[in-house]
Design a protein that fits this description.
The chain has 569 residues and is of the alpha+beta class. It is built from 27 helices and 14 strands. The strands form six sheets. A four-stranded mixed β-sheet has the order 1-6-3-4, with helices on both faces. Strands 2-5 form a two-stranded parallel ribbon. Helix 10 packs parallel to helix 17 and helix 15 crosses helix 17. It is elongated. The two termini are 50 Å apart. About 9% of the residues have low confidence.
């Protein structure tokens, strides 16, 4: 459960810093940033300033946020708040608790031998002195208005883990390599805080659930959520959307209700509920598929498409949602994009090269999978466009109560690819740029070759599947193994499109400066990485890869690119 709690509420609790937590490590710089932010919020009379999220166990053991909570304790002691009970206990570190009991206003040294001879206590005492000096310099030590603002208008966003959560594991996940709070975590916190402000408690829980589903795009989505796509799409109010999801989430399982909160906890602990064909609850295996976007990129796409704000924008903004309608739009978008992604965007089993879609589409299915896989290996920009067009196609299908039109989707994806490739029939010299040649053009050409393969590579095209090729190969190497100089004819041809192909970096490093004949010999029986490359290998193995042959091949490939028009299905 997520709660927005102010500092007055925080000081009424009893938090425990577990012994597996590291010692206090904030520097003056960290503390100054926090103090400056609170001071600025007070001067601007902001209704609320959020220090950030903290994660605690059901026993109030601090999993994430102990640096901020310890700094808060230092701040309150600098204000002379000795009458406030120590709300922060330190497991198996009595010397720190003893130090906080005697710190007060004004700063004072202690004769306690244990606290005086411990580096963490020295650190806390130094930060305490820094804080006291800061407050004195800004003349707020005696200003009740500042202290009252701190207590009543400065908040933490507290997330409490479920009772059976493994807190040691949760700590390790949250603190891997000492990572700072991520932008997506801050953005999520701000959105939930906005919803809490608007008294949208149930909706904030639904938002949390939808967000977590989008964080798990490498796994299958529950088929029963997919079945609700039409109801989700047609929901016109936030309350209706919640009712649709609640109806699904609170189904009977082994004689007991499964609540939305239970589902969220399961998602957060890596045990994602799925209704199997037998009707029982099962767990997903983490990270089953390779997909076209990371969860960060996917959520960023949803937010920019729904409210025209990126994760970075939201992380910098205090107020994202100003009315319930915006909350509704975000939740609905998260759910529908996630359903579209699960059903109609290509994926592949990790360790496998075969692409597939969960939703079975009989008409033009191979072509739809091929164009999607081509866009998937072409980078984030193309992948985001792919997901957006798939979502639009699903929206149309839901509106007209029909199946998704595969032909129309292929047409729109191909039109985007033609635009993205930027092929100008009157100026094809942009393809003759060596390693600077746009990688997307190579992927797009391989797709065209897959559609209408020349006889020489027809058999190979049938087993071709797009993989992540990202290294431009000079088929005739730039530097000959013999150490000889290239002829003038080859010097003029080396960086032209006919002599270039896109393959994997590992293959490129292995081939390196080998002459074309040797490359063709070594490629026998190897995985097909590029259909253009296969054509070049065929030429080199059946004749000679001369500058003239390279030029002729380049002209043929450029013609294929410039002449291609997507058909009407």
């Amino acid at each position: 459960m997520v709660n927005l709690i102010n500092i007055r509420d925080v000081t009424s609790k009893k938090y425990i810093v577990p012994d597996f937590q590291r010692d206090y490590a904030w520097t003056e710089s960290n503390l100054e940033v926090m103090l400056n932010d609170i001071m600025e919020a007070w001067k601007q009379e902001k209704d609320r300033y959020i220090l950030g999220p903290i994660v605690v166990s059901w026993q109030n053991k601090v999993i994430d946020g102990q640096q901020r909570l310890t700094s808060l304790m230092i701040l309150l002691r600098a204000f002379g708040c000795c009458n406030i009970d120590c709300f922060l206990r330190f497991e198996n570190r009595k010397h720190i608790e003893d130090l906080f009991k005697i710190l007060g206003n004004p700063p004072s040294q202690t004769d306690n031998e244990e606290t005086n001879n411990h580096p963490t206590c020295d650190k806390i005492r130094a930060m305490y002195q820094f804080t006291y000096d800061y407050l004195s310099k800004n003349q707020v030590l005696t200003k009740n208005t500042f202290f009252e603002y701190l207590m009543d208008h400065v908040y933490f966003l507290e997330k409490q883990l479920c009772q059976n959560a493994a807190i040691q594991h949760a700590f390790e996940v949250l603190n891997t390599a000492g990572e700072n709070l991520k932008k997506e975590d801050i953005a999520k916190s701000r959105i939930i805080a906005n919803m809490v402000d608007l008294n949208l408690e149930k909706e904030s829980e639904l938002f949390n659930f939808a967000w977590l589903l989008c964080c798990d795009i490498e796994n299958d989505l529950d088929e029963n959520i997919v079945k609700k796509s039409k109801e989700i799409s047609k929901a016109e109010k936030l309350e209706k959307l919640y009712d649709v999801m609640k109806d699904f989430l609170q189904h009977e399982s082994e004689g007991s209700k499964v609540s939305l909160s239970d589902i969220v906890h399961k998602v957060e602990t890596g045990k994602i509920y799925s209704r199997t064909k037998s009707g029982t609850i099962s767990d997903f295996q983490s990270g089953r598929y390779s997909v076209c976007l990371t969860s960060y990129e996917f959520i960023d796409l949803v937010l920019t498409s729904s409210i025209e704000k990126s994760i970075s924008d939201i992380a910098k903004t205090d107020s994202v949602i100003k009315e319930p309608e915006q909350a509704f739009i975000i939740i609905k978008s998260l759910l529908l994009y996630r359903i579209a992604f699960d059903q109609y965007v290509v994926k592949r089993e990790k360790g496998n090269t075969e692409w597939f879609m969960t939703k079975s589409i009989t008409e033009h299915s191979k072509r739809l999978i091929c164009i999607q896989s081509m866009l998937t290996v072409s980078g984030v920009e193309s992948s985001k466009k792919l997901v957006s067009l798939v979502k639009e196609a699903m929206d149309v299908a839901i509106f007209y109560d029909t199946e998704i039109c595969s032909g129309e989707l292929i047409r729109r994806l191909e039109e985007y690819a033609i635009e993205r490739a930027g092929i100008e029939p009157t100026n094809l010299d942009n393809l003759d740029k060596g390693v600077e040649t746009d990688h997307f053009v190579f992927h797009w050409l391989d797709y065209i070759l897959w559609l209408n393969p020349p006889e020489e590579i027809k058999e190979k095209s049938e087993s071709f599947s797009f993989i992540n090729t990202s290294s431009v190969e000079h088929f005739m190497p730039q530097h000959l193994l013999s150490g000889e100089e290239h002829s003038e004819e080859w010097k003029n041809e080396l960086n032209n499109f006919g002599n270039l192909a896109l393959i994997t970096p590992s293959s490129n490093s292995r081939q390196s400066n080998l002459p074309p004949k040797n490359k063709a010999e070594n490629a026998k029986g190897k995985r097909i990485e590029s259909l253009k490359y296969e054509l070049m290998l065929h030429i080199a193995s059946t004749s000679e890869w001369t500058a003239e042959a390279s030029k002729e091949h380049g002209l043929e490939m450029k013609k294929l690119l410039s002449d291609y028009k997507t058909p009407h299905f």
